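Hey there, shall we discuss this one?
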Amino acid sequence: MRDIEKMNMAHGSNSKRIRRRKRGQSLYVFLVVILAFAIIITLSTTVFFNVRTIRVTGDADYEAEEIVEQVGVSEGDNMMRLNLPQLEAEAEEKLINAENVDIKRQFPSTLIIDVSRAVPAYNVSYEYGTLIVSRNNKILQDSMDPAQGLVSIIGYEPEETTPGRYLSALEERHDKILTAFQDLMQENTLAVPIVSVNMTDLNNIVVNFDDRIEFDMGNWSEINYKISFAEQVIEKQSADKEGYLTMIGSNQCSFRNKADVLNAEKNAERKAAAQQEADAAALSESEAAGNPELPGEMPEDVPAEYEQLE
């Protein structure tokens, strides 16, 4: 006799109902979570986390009230709605003598504004004056006269000259050269300080060490190596020696004593003056002898067809 398999239809139907009930519960829980999250977000941007205290820190040369005003926040503002990066950037531009504006939220209701003082570091000479620039290349002042005690940058052509903004060059190479020298100077590892960099001719950059030795380093390749090499040569000289250092090839430097160079220039000037006197005396003798024509002048009786020949 064939076996007959019986199925419990009621049991299968119950399983389906249970699964549908679980799916419905999961959807309900999901909707509740979404709704709760939306309520929290709404409350946090309207009722909760409003600014009650604004704390100003740092060493900037500004009063706390002025910093808060320039940042553009006030009590009652919602901290979650504040665009902190934008506020920081705008405050840095407005607070010309300050940099590194850092704004932080301290929940539930405190806003902390930390502002650092901008330290002048460079005189950047350009066609219309001098830009006083901070260590981080923020333009602090556009002046006719350089500030005392700062490193002079000569030959840099700025694209941006507005105080409060950051230095940038018309030519990308100028920025690369300036950055390379800044990295060297800010590492505080130079035995002999750099007081000026002249990049007017990018194939003959001149660096002044300690206001006593000028280094013609050639082009702007391998700046770190050339400066390190020059420093080694300078350290071997006496501390009061003045002179001129020239990079020769890739591994040699030529040093000329300033006194010797000045003496050679004076001798050359004296020789030139003596030659001029001799030429003048010869001319006077020629005129006295009745031959007034100056050297190089064409005699009056030369045919016209010869006058254009060299």
